[in-house]
Amino acid sequence: MKSHKSLFLAAFLLLFTGTAVSAQELSCTYKVADRDTCSLYMDVYDPAPGSETTLDGKAKPTVLFVFGGGFVIGARSHPYHLPWFKVLNDNGYRVITVDYRLGLKGKHLDLRVTKLKESAQTVKDAVDIAVEDVFASVSYILKNADELGVDPANIVIAGSSAGAMTALQAEWYICNGHPLAKVLPSGFNFAGLMSFAGSIMSNSGKPSFKKAPCPIMLIHGTADKIVTYDKISLGKWGMYGSSALAEIFKDKQYEYCIYRFKDHNHDMASNYVATWPEEQRFLEENVLKGTRRIVDAFIDDPAMPVFAEFGSLEDIYK
């Protein structure tokens, strides 16, 4: 049986092996905060020299990236992310990638029905720890916006897998005035959100929003067995994946774009280079131009990279 580390690293590295895109160089690193177990840092990748940093006279947003790895592994600037950072930089976008504590590292999740609520609480605790750390980075960015060259009103948060869960949970908490969001200035919100195989963890039933979320792009494989594409619920506990969230957004007439990749597994968590055309249109139309653009696309694309195996929750957390 493969370990959780080999499953995730093999999948991510396989995606980027053979790509012709070279990695972007790091611009600078900042220490954000100290925690009991570690210090939190963030890396900044500035737009490439000569790249177009505006569109129709408006500055392109900073993309704040939250890495994935099941809350057990991962790093803010691992080599498998760098080709995507270069794509963003070459297209005039600044990238800031941040640390968070890995709340499930070394922990066992018992996925038997009788233990699901207990395991769900453990996962939600890990998500909340990550959200707390990401909010610390957002707070640091806002306080040092001039030095970083960041417009506080023009930040798009993006995340992969566990990072996508963190990004979606963070937006949900901002919209609902959750205590963890109190470290942010009143009225702050992201300009947009890009989720690569993410979900929201709720212990209060189907997620609801006290105020409308920012424009959200959801990319997910319909056969994802790691972060559910639809939903898994037991009583008030639930993991609400992209399809379930899109149903909520549609019902409430929120602004969203969902791309449902037929028969793909958790590989869509790291297919961000291959899905750049969808991302670019979301960033340019929904975020920069402010076009209220709703997309619900079911995609069967043989050219999209596929991993034959990505494991299951049992493989990762046993």
Write a short abstract of this structure.
This protein is α/β, with parallel strands linked by helices and 318 residues long. 31% of the residues lie in helices and 21% in strands.
| Count of separate DSSP helical elements | 8
- The sequence of SSEs as H and E is HEEEEEHEHHEHEEEEEHEHEH
What would you give as the CATH superfamily?
Alpha/Beta hydrolase fold, catalytic domain
N-C termini distance: 11 Å
Overall, the morphology is globular
Strand content is: 15-25%
Number of domains: 1
Q: From the alpha-carbon coordinates, what is the Rg to the nearest angstrom?
A: 18 Å
Strand order of the largest sheet: 1-2-6-5-7-8-10-13-14
Give a verbal description of the structure.
By secondary structure, the chain is α/β, with parallel strands linked by helices. The chain has a single domain (about 5-315), classed as Alpha/Beta hydrolase fold, catalytic domain (Rossmann fold). It contains 8 helices and 14 strands. The protein has a 9-stranded mixed β-sheet with strand order 1-2-6-5-7-8-10-13-14, sandwiched between helices. Helix 3 (about 115-145) crosses helix 5. The chain is globular. The model is unreliable at about 1-5 and about 10-20 (pLDDT under 50).
